[in-house]
Amino acid sequence: MIGRLNHVAIAVPDLEAAARTYRDVLGARLSEPLALPEHGVTTIFVELPNTKIELLEPLGPDSPIARFLARSPEGGVHHLCYEVADILAARDRLIATGARVLGDGTPRIGAHGKPVLFLHPKDFQGTLVELEEA
Amino acid sequence: MIGRLNHVAIAVPDLEAAARTYRDVLGARLSEPLALPEHGVTTIFVELPNTKIELLEPLGPDSPIARFLARSPEGGVHHLCYEVADILAARDRLIATGARVLGDGTPRIGAHGKPVLFLHPKDFQGTLVELEEA
């Protein structure tokens, strides 16, 4: 069911500092910062040959990553995003196996303009999983 | 400098259970389990079209992931591994920028039979980074 690893998302307390790390220390190619107020984050993508690292900095008071950073102030891997061909079929298969889909199970439009769902970390070895319709 | 994301390593308390999650719930293709006593882990690879997820279960009393699981008993993302063309050149560049290479800076032979180095998570937004010579 899951296809490509679309991205690894890393929550960071300081996006400028993180960009310097990935650009100047690790020598990677970066996108420009993009503020996504409706998602409560500002993002920069680290563009690797086979996938992307998504650096996420909280934006606004209700950012979904603020609680993560309260627990891990230095930052850390926030979620892994896998591509699926059909997000509703994926959701139904997951629910049939007993896995928990976050929210009411209705895909929302994610940061890349595509339908996404998040799965409960307790059902995936402590890893928050995002599925994105490719 | 960094090239492909070679793998995302996830520490898990129960490799059989994790394999069931990735195979039966997420529908991915898995390798056979491989015990690596010299690295203190048993691994299963989740083979995605563009990269791999490396599931790691502790093996033996001195496993490097036992401490991680003591803090995060459900498991979680343990490290990200990026490919580099020349690991000694990468190391020298990292040291020149002030980043900390773990150990004495001498690459060791990693789980895939290639030279690897690990970088200090405090210098990389809370993420343990492995570099592997491709």
From TrEMBL, chains A, B:
Domain VOC, first and last residues per copy: 4-134
Domain of life: Bacteria
Keywords annotated in UniProt: Isomerase, Metal-binding
CDD domains: MMCE
EC number, as in UniProt: 5.1.99.1
Transmembrane segments: none
Gene Ontology molecular function, alphabetical: methylmalonyl-CoA epimerase activity
Gene3D superfamilies per the UniProt record, alphabetical: 2,3-Dihydroxybiphenyl 1,2-Dioxygenase, domain 1
Family note: Belongs to the methylmalonyl-CoA epimerase family.
Entries under NCBIfam families matching the protein: metmalonyl_epim
UniProt name for this protein: Methylmalonyl-CoA/ethylmalonyl-CoA epimerase
